[in-house]
Structure formats: structure tokens, C-alpha cells
């Protein structure tokens, strides 16, 4: 009897072990290639956990999965460089078919005249600011105090994972996210062109870049890993390099307005412009297509857009669209300890430095900036006709993004 029980117990344990192996390794995205960037020197907080550190703090299941995943490190001690040839293929200038990219254009200048920034010190300062305000109990904003486990899966859809290089990117719309998504596609080899992975980010069509099926994001983990999904997320958050790029919140709003309401965008016209024109401009019997509306001179004004953001009915109907949703709601910076915080205002320098830290700068280069990027110097003109009370309310709405990421309070817009 004892032998029979031992045999049954062994079968059960082996079965559980095999299921875990299948969950971890039998994955077409590349978890089997769990190439972790744990050896390169990168700016991180003094308490940051790197590979092999502080595993005792993990729960039992996390610890078991972590050891399983770490075992692959011994087999894959370095990231394979399939091609030692330089894959920096940005010398040819692609034909830009998207309306927005045609209007904005690419800036192909080399920016050699820019002063090089002390990137390491810059990162330390940005991370210190973020950590201090996340820890400051007197500074509050919605969702600040919740734990990572309290974040619902649907709010983790902006965290893109590259298992090949051990990278997690939280994308923020209107902060160079199209090109950073292109970079992530190249790194993860998640999209093929005639059977071959893309090598040049700018070769990837925009419609594929924003297709949600192209990227592995945290909110997809439940379908792949079931009840182990949160455990795997936590392990990857501890061991992978996590980054995001941010932008002055008011300038980001102007940029969102320009691209979604000043250009003909059928989807945004029907979902947002028609309700705004009805609610705030008292228009009725509006055209069903954006081209007809533009032809008749019916466009959402910036004032309409600000009223929409401040209207309490907006959030009751649905959460803010990602293009104007606050960064703290997209990327959860007080729950996730980001290793790198980039800013659009220093995009070229930050991007080059990050690719070096990730040790992928020989594989690709970050695409060039847009020529006519929305500038902070435009704020005064854009907000000139917005009532002072609205500007003050708007600041309160986006205050957490200003403070957490070190953007100065726009005093000139908030006073008479």
C-alpha cells in the first residue's frame, strides 16, 4: 500500500512539474528564450532587485517559477546575435503613407549640435523624483495606494513584453509610441515580412504597429498562463528592464487634439467629435462622415475638447481614451519600479542611451523625430482662449503626471 501511494504521489508531482514546464517553456512568444538583461550596467534604484537577488521575498509559487525560469539562464548565458552585421538600416527614407506621418514628416538631421546629456545622472534624478512622490503620503491621486495585485488585467494592456531581450515597455500615446512599438517589434521578432522578421523599424507599416495582436502585453497573460499569470508578471517585473517615455501633460493634450481632431479621422469623429459638437457647440443633424463635416466647416474646437475632458459625465460613460488618459493610469508608476524614464523633450539622447543600455544599439537605431512636433512654446497660444477656471481644473486633472515626472507647474497658465 505504501509503495502504491508513493507511486501515485510521484505521478501527481511529475504531472504538476510537466504542466509548469509546458506553461513556462511551450510558448511561441519566446519565454523559452528568457534572455535576461541582468548583467549590463543600468541606472536603478538602490533597492532594485536584479537576477538572483532577494528570491526569499517571493511567495512559494513565485519562487518555484523563478527558479524554473532562472535555470534557462545557464543554457542561454548571452543573447545570440544572429547577425553581426549592423542592422541599422535607417539610411533609406521610407515612403510614408499614413496621413498623420505625411503631415508631420520625419526630421533626418543628425542633431550633432546638441549638447550631450549626462544620462546616468539624469536617470537617477528622474527616478528619485518619482520614488519620492510615490512615497509621499501628503501627495495623493486616484489609484496611488493600490498594490500591483489590485490592478485589473485590462489596465495592464500598455505593458509590452519582449522575452528575447528581457524588456518591458509601457507605451504612452503621443509620446513617440508608434516608433517605440516598432522597436519592440524588431526586438521581439513578433512580426514577419515575407517570412523574415523586420529589421528596420521604419519598414513596419503603421497599421501593423497599432494592431493589438502584434504585441505580447501583460493583459494577455491570463489567457496564456491562467492562475500563474500574476506570478510570472511579478517575476518579469523584477528581472526585466522596464521603461517608459513621458511628455509635458498639457503639450501631450495639444498633440492629441491636433492629430485626432484637426486631421480627418473617421473613428475619432464618430466616437468623440460628434458628441462634443452636440454637447458643447449645440450642433444637430451632423454629417455621418468626417470628410463631409470638414467640408462644411464643422470641426471640434480646442475649447470643446477641454470641456469634454472636464465634464464629469465623460468618465462615467467610459474611461478616458488612451491618447489623453493620464500616464499614471496607463503605466502605474507607483506600483512598477521603472528602470528608465525617457522624455520626449530629450527623445534623441534618451533613446540612444537606452538602446546602449539594452545592448541592442548594434541591431537597430531609433527612428528619427518628426519635424513639426508639438512644442511646449505653443501652450500660451493654445490656452489663450480657455477660461482660467478651466485651466486650473485641467491642471488638477493631470497634476500627478506633472509632479511624478518632474514637469514644472505651468504657473503662467494658472494665474490671471
TrEMBL record:
Its EC number(s): 2.8.2.-
Q: Which GO terms describe its biological process?
A: carbohydrate biosynthetic process; proteoglycan biosynthetic process
The transmembrane residues are: 7-26
Q: How does it sit in the membrane?
A: Single-pass type II membrane protein
Q: What is its main location?
A: Golgi
Q: Which GO terms describe its molecular function?
A: sulfotransferase activity
List UniProt keywords, sorted A-Z. Answer: Carbohydrate metabolism, Glycoprotein, Golgi apparatus, Membrane, Signal-anchor, Transferase, Transmembrane, Transmembrane helix
Please tell me whether the keyword Transferase is annotated for this protein: yes
The enzyme's first-digit EC class, named in words, is transferase
* Record's GO cellular component terms: Golgi membrane
Subcellular localization is given as: Golgi apparatus membrane
Give the family, as the similarity comment puts it: Belongs to the sulfotransferase 2 family.
Q: Which PANTHER family match?
A: CARBOHYDRATE SULFOTRANSFERASE (PTHR12137), CARBOHYDRATE SULFOTRANSFERASE 12 (PTHR12137:SF4)
Identify this protein by name.
Carbohydrate sulfotransferase
Cite the source lineage: Eukaryota, Metazoa, Chordata, Craniata, Vertebrata
